[in-house]
Design brief:
- It is a single chain.
- The relative contact order is 0.16.
- The chain is an alpha+beta fold.
- The protein is globular.
- Helices cover about 35% and strands about 30% of the residues.
- The two termini are about 20 Å apart.
- A hairpin with a 2-residue loop joins strand 3 and strand 4.
- The protein contains 14 helices and 16 strands.
- Helix 7 crosses helix 13.
- The strands form 2 sheets. Strands 1, 2, 3, 4, 5, 6, 9, 10, 11, 12, 13, 14, 15 and 16 form a 14-stranded mixed sheet that branches.
């Protein structure tokens, strides 16, 4: 359902729905238009992935959801953007939260009038779909980019995370939104693990039938299935959890295989059965900063990336997933497999030339996990905030 362009008082700006490829490119390039390139810690996102996510013929999300995108203009120049989406998979998994819609892709000049107008358009669309709450930002759900960065602006943006100007949270709040949940990012130094965690890991690893192995790229689709099964088991009680779909995993298997480093992508098995995973990936942001958002549309950039992956690999990584399957996590005997994988990834990463990395995200109220991460020597260094408003 199209929402008419909305006047932003008292400025001359207007909000327009995205229609067609030209509008989409303008929408995607709003971060450039509002000056993100001035920030030395921002890395232009590779736009091919966003184009796919917003293409009804290619987007796994749009198989179970729908979306509307808006761009704000002032005197013909883009000054902000937002998406608003409905996720029927979320509706199915979380019947206890009826009527939730989500927003994402939020970028805005430091102008509350623009922010309010963007959210007014998004809210009108959400209400037209029978929704009574708007939550975000998510691009496009909790398995993608999450939150507005509110702490940690002085460090580089890592692959798959958001980085924005410090005022952006205030722009969300100016539209009447308040905090729903904070997500934490942790920094760990490769090779440095506290002695207590090492002892726990060694004791667990010595148990009969326990084995840690690198993921096998020759059987990568099988490994992706293992990631799905462990993720959907270990994370299912987390706030906002949505399981991986087969279509999403197909993309992971075909598009992300080239980035995987098996030294830091691990599977823990018990009697030959997958029990836990640790999925860390090299921080590709270190190698694509100069691509200005384009990879496949510039063949030279793809050649550069392949060369850099082979000869100048990143020195940092992002630990995206570390979890123990439900049946093993509840076991007194195998519940410490997370410590085994943490020690393994830290030591293997160090021996392979990594100097450190980010572990993200964890929920602010996941106290046991956060305490465990601190005990293992990591420090909280970034916070992302998700907001919500009743419509």
């Amino acid at each position: 359902m199209a929402v008419p362009a909305q006047q932003i008082s008292p400025s001359r700006a207007e909000v327009r729905p995205v229609r067609g490829k030209k509008d989409l490119e303008t929408f995607l390039h709003v971060p450039w238009a509002v000056g993100m390139k001035e920030d030395p810690n921002w890395v232009p996102p590779l736009l091919d992935d966003y184009r796919r996510q917003l293409n009804p013929k290619k987007s796994p999300f749009l198989k179970h959801g729908e979306i509307e995108c808006f761009t704000a203009f002032d005197s013909g120049h883009p000054v902000g953007r937002v998406s608003v989406q409905i996720d029927r998979e979320f509706d199915r998994i979380h019947p206890e939260e009826p009527g939730v819609a989500f927003f994402g892709f939020f970028e805005c000049a430091e102008r509350p009038d623009v922010s309010r107008a963007l959210f007014a358009a998004a809210e009108q669309w959400a209400r037209s779909k029978g929704r009574n709450r708007l939550r975000g930002p998510f691009t496009l759900d909790t398995k993608g980019e999450v939150g507005v960065l509110i702490e940690g602006f002085d460090t580089p943006q890592r692959i798959g995370t958001t980085h924005n100007k410090p005022y952006l949270g205030a722009m969300v709040e100016a539209a009447g939104y308040s905090k729903a949940k904070d997500f934490y990012g942790w920094w760990f130094t490769a090779g440095h693990v506290d002695e207590r965690t090492k002892r726990i890991a060694e004791k667990t690893k010595a148990l009969p039938g326990v084995k840690v192995r690198p993921m096998d790229l020759k059987n990568f689709r099988r490994e992706v299935d293992i990631v799905r099964d462990v993720f959907n088991s270990a994370w299912k009680e987390n706030w906002g959890f949505i399981p991986f779909t087969n279509e999403e995993l197909e993309i992971i298997a075909t598009e992300y295989k080239m980035f995987v480093d098996t030294e830091i992508a691990l599977v823990a098995e018990v009697e030959g059965k997958p029990a836990a995973i640790c999925l860390a990936i090299p921080d590709i942001n270190e190698m694509v900063r100069d691509f200005d958002g384009e990879l496949m549309r510039n063949p030279l950039h793809l050649v550069k990336l392949l060369w850099r992956l082979k000869f100048r690999r990143p020195k940092h990584a992002r630990l995206m997933l570390l979890g123990v399957k439900e049946g093993f996590r509840a076991s007194h005997k195998y519940g410490t497999l997370a410590a085994v994988l943490y020690v393994e990834v830290a030591e293997r990463g160090y021996n392979h030339g990594y100097v450190g990395g980010e572990l993200s995200w964890t929920l602010e109220d996941n106290v046991l996990i956060n305490r465990g991460i601190e005990r293992m020597g990591a420090r909280k260094y970034k916070t992302w905030r998700v907001y919500e408003k009743r419509l």
